[in-house]
């Protein structure tokens, strides 16, 4: 079953409950920059998120350099944001817990 695209009010409601996620100008994706203590923490985060993404059958667009992981989430089949994006974002936030330096939280 194809995921249903969320309307602007539902997207705003989800974003209000989340920290650090930013809505793209076109409203079709959300973005967050994660900064970790080192490369090992960043890679560990990505590994945990990859397993969660596979279970959801919903995969992030991400970019990693050393301790930085920039993530963009969107549901391409729906041409915008769906519940899957916010489920994966929440799992990513949980995966980042304890891995980021205090001054970067």
Automatic annotation (TrEMBL):
Catalytic activity: (4aS,6R)-4a-hydroxy-L-erythro-5,6,7,8-tetrahydrobiopterin = (6R)-L-erythro-6,7-dihydrobiopterin + H2O
Pfam families: Pterin_4a
Keyword Transferase: no
Record key words, sorted: Lyase
Enzyme Commission number(s) of this protein: 4.2.1.96
InterPro entries linked to this entry: PCD_sf, Pterin_deHydtase
GO MF term set: 4-alpha-hydroxytetrahydrobiopterin dehydratase activity
Family recorded in the similarity comment: Belongs to the pterin-4-alpha-carbinolamine dehydratase family.
Name this polypeptide is given: Putative pterin-4-alpha-carbinolamine dehydratase
Species of origin: Sinorhizobium psoraleae
